[in-house]
Amino acid sequence: MSRREEYEMKTEQLLQPIAEANGVSIYDIEYVKEGSDYYLRAYIDKPGGVNIQDCENVSRRLSDELDREDFIPEAYILEVSSPGLGRALKKDKHLQASIGQDVEIRLFRPVEKCRDFSGVLEGFDAEQVTIRNGDTPMTLKRADIAVIRLAIDF
User: What integer pLDDT is reported at residue 153 of this predicted model?
Assistant: First the structure.
């Protein structure tokens, strides 16, 4: 297990009771370096969406727990937010919850001279993702997918 994965797992364990006490669920946790700064991001959600007060309440309690446990030696910035409308579908639970919804997919390298695809998410397994655009189903290898996001329709 990488250091990043360890930090994310420990943070999720600390966050679980805090999320439950605040009526939200954990969507994702990520520990990333951007430029010279490290970020620990917790994405929370609930039916109808989270508001700023939800984020503030969870952030304060999580910050206290992280200070108490002190398992991340580097300085980092803690962010607690909603995953947003165009949320990335990183985990199987995200894909499962999004079946039947419009998604946008970006590949690492072009397939048939195209890197970007969109359509309705029809299904997935460990190896592939299937979308439908109109009457045309398309299956893409998960290993080729850089990101899958919910499509934002304005």
Answer: 77
CATH architecture classification, 3-81: 2-Layer Sandwich (3.30)
The domain locations on the chain are 3-81, 92-150
Low pLDDT (below 50) residues in the chain: none
Give the dihedral sign, CA 70/76/77/78. Answer: negative
**0.85 cut: is pTM over it?**
no
pLDDT digit string, tens, across residues 88-120: 999 999 999 999 999 999 999 998 899 999 999
